[in-house]
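Quick one: structure for this chain?
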Amino acid sequence: MNTILISSTEIIDSLEIKYKKLVSAPGELKIEIYPKEKRGKKNNIIIIHANHDLVKTKVGLRWINSKFPKINEIINIGKVIPVNQMILKNHILIPNQILSLYDSPIEWNLGIKIPSIIINQLNQNILREAIYENNLDFIYGDVLSINPIHENERILKELKSSKICDGVNNLVYTVNEFAEINKIPIFNILIGSPDKYILNKKLNINLIIDHILNQLYK
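Got it. Here's what it folds into:
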């Protein structure tokens, strides 16, 4: 059994994972693997250092899917840029749906169809329970991915006024689209300020990951 863990190098290093080893992967991909036994079942955690890079994330997911016979779930950890003022820096945002607007902002008001992915309710419940059991704050909302070249203060203000979404993360649609196409359960842990809460050890993501895997393999 195999779990994919996607995040930035900073967040991954802060998890202080022992016994992980680098996997020989194409190009500039940084992929690591470590064994994590759960309830007597052997499970490999395959780590993609995405670092906000859309191309590396796409290539990494496809490469892992071709090299490892069975992917059981994906855990995606990242930062959410708040659009809804109700989202605080210490919140974990649990997405209801994932939206995508990779076209130019000029076209946003031309009645274009916004692709969306509805998040599986069971997966939401497992993640919510993991967060709740660890006494962390969370909020539900819709998350939008846009082309990073269009991300600026003016665009974020437009998104606030349009009320299209509650937060922005530019990799989340790609990762969830991959999961949906390949029918892989996915858990999105999106945090208002990873720098403040994960890197400073105020928020222990390891506990959430353990809880998710315990629920899946019980």
